Amino acid sequence: MKAPASAPAPGSSQAPQEPRWLTDEEQHVWRSFMEGVTLLDDHLDRQLQRDAGMPHVYYGLLVKLAEAPRRRLRMTELAMLAKITRSRLSHAIARLEKNGWVRREDCPDDKRGQFAVLTDEGHDVLRQTAPGHVEAVRQAVFDRLTPQQQKSLGEIMRIVAEGLQPAEAGADLPWLR
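Below the sequence we write its predicted structure tokens.
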């Protein structure tokens, strides 16, 4: 994100306001962050595809359902917890249903609402897959960091996540799309 050659916008009588370009150090941090996130996501996806035939996002959905009371969540709440669009969630749940790992149930008090429910088979798959996944996460992240670095990473990512989830109405968040 270095400063490109800039020209005033066509038809503009004012010079455009100069963006706050990243410093060389910020550029290095940003690119390292993006490379790490991309490689970590690929690493975890490959491990879960190999061990359970599912992508990382599907595993995350099974975990959220396993942690929920009665292993069930409203679809809108599951989308919010997973930080994904409703469309992506619907597609993922359809695939998980096809595997017999999740089922949908209508909400008795809301004709348009649905629950996603983790089946016993889905719970078994999660239990069988979790040890390998935890080991992959441990090797890729936690074994490489000191306890202080782990704490700092958690604090930093919490701040970033909070900043990207504004509380005001009309916020453009994935689970609202």
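The chain has six helices and three strands.
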